[in-house]
């Protein structure tokens, strides 16, 4: 999609997909339901996306772009502050609506059956891992982080956050995000930062 | 189920459910498919379980019991060794067959739509949390663990493991379990054990 009109249509469809996922969940999501949210016809939707799966792959890509826009990192910012901010955003949001996260968990559980979902989820994950590992590398270079393995640490942090969010949805446990975030901050202070908590404050 | 015959039937149905989940996944699992695995009729299956959901709730309970049997803790064992062993079993198994874990992730993603699934998954989680928190408490009493919050630490450990297992399935990432397990062991050494690595060895 290139010109302004097409971009606007893309944005409208992505936002409609978000709302339709919240309302219907993944299993009951139809092209018709998304079309109704856009106010466009189902035929218009199919002009852009052949199948529901194509549309949802585009939606996963859109989520990644939205995340990047929301966590614009400033180069002059302290890597410790950057890491803390980004982890908090990953734990608590940016899309911490339960209905939406419930639908996303369903979609993710279908990745083993869908090459297209899995490929896009892997691409999203690689970008996130690279983003975190990049911050960690810069922190090590600047001497404010300990000499940890950036990729291993990134994978560990993302696993912990993924687990907390999954448990929040599966167990309907509202405390788990706060609990894990507190422990993650302590982990960073002791395992990653050179001078512990002082770096963040 | 009380007498020997009923217990044997229960065990046979649970094992058949395991195999049927591996073979068909969650979405395509039917009572017929499970009956075929047991060699019993579908009517026999319905004699024990009214619905597929009833059967799967019993199966979740069975998984917890199996886990308890596999990780029989000895009271005279070092809490550090106990914790290391149990975390490794949680990361890598006891049921680390991809097909099975794929089906389990689908089932778990349905918990927000099923009070019965969610109630049983919460009960399983409470028992696991209590098991870990109990080991941590004993470690603190024995003076081999630092003065951490047992429940918070247990919730954090379980989140990290849950996330690693979810990413293993969703991203088809075979390295993530090993990577996260290594980092978890380092976390234990630095954040939980009093004398770090020495306790485990």
TrEMBL record, chains A, B:
<dbReference type="InterPro" id="IPR039538">
    <property type="entry name" value="BetI_C"/>
</dbReference>
<dbReference type="InterPro" id="IPR001647">
    <property type="entry name" value="HTH_TetR"/>
</dbReference>
<dbReference type="InterPro" id="IPR036271">
    <property type="entry name" value="Tet_transcr_reg_TetR-rel_C_sf"/>
</dbReference>
<keyword id="KW-0238">DNA-binding</keyword>
<keyword id="KW-0805">Transcription regulation</keyword>
<dbReference type="Pfam" id="PF13977">
    <property type="entry name" value="TetR_C_6"/>
</dbReference>
<dbReference type="Pfam" id="PF00440">
    <property type="entry name" value="TetR_N"/>
</dbReference>
<feature type="DNA-binding region" description="H-T-H motif">
    <location>
        <begin position="30"/>
        <end position="49"/>
    </location>
</feature>
<dbReference type="GO" id="GO:0003700">
    <property type="term" value="F:DNA-binding transcription factor activity"/>
</dbReference>
<dbReference type="InterPro" id="IPR009057">
    <property type="entry name" value="Homeodomain-like_sf"/>
</dbReference>
<feature type="domain" description="HTH tetR-type">
    <location>
        <begin position="7"/>
        <end position="67"/>
    </location>
</feature>
<keyword id="KW-0804">Transcription</keyword>
<dbReference type="InterPro" id="IPR050109">
    <property type="entry name" value="HTH-type_TetR-like_transc_reg"/>
</dbReference>
<protein>
    <submittedName>
        <fullName>Transcriptional regulator, TetR family</fullName>
    </submittedName>
</protein>
<dbReference type="GO" id="GO:0000976">
    <property type="term" value="F:transcription cis-regulatory region binding"/>
</dbReference>
<keyword id="KW-0678">Repressor</keyword>
């Amino acid at each position: 999609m290139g010109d302004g009109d097409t971009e606007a249509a893309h944005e409208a469809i992505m936002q409609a997909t978000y709302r339709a996922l919240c309302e219907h969940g993944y299993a009951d999501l139809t092209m018709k339901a998304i079309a109704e949210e856009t106010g466009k016809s189902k035929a218009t939707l199919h002009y852009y996306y052949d199948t529901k799966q194509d549309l949802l792959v585009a939606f996963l890509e859109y989520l990644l772009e939205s995340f990047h826009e929301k966590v614009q990192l400033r180069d002059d910012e302290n890597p410790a502050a950057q890491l803390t901010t980004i982890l908090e955003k990953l734990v608590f949001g940016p899309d911490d609506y339960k209905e939406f996260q419930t639908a996303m968990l369903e979609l993710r559980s279908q990745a083993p059956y869908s090459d297209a979902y899995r490929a896009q989820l892997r691409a999203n994950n690689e970008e996130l891992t690279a983003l975190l590992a990049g911050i960690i590398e810069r922190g090590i270079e600047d001497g404010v982080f300990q000499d940890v393995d950036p990729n291993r640490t990134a994978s560990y942090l993302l696993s912990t956050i993924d687990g907390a969010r999954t448990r929040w949805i599966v167990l309907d446990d509202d405390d788990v995000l706060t609990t894990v975030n507190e422990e993650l901050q302590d982990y960073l202070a002791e395992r990653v930062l050179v001078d512990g908590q002082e770096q963040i404050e």
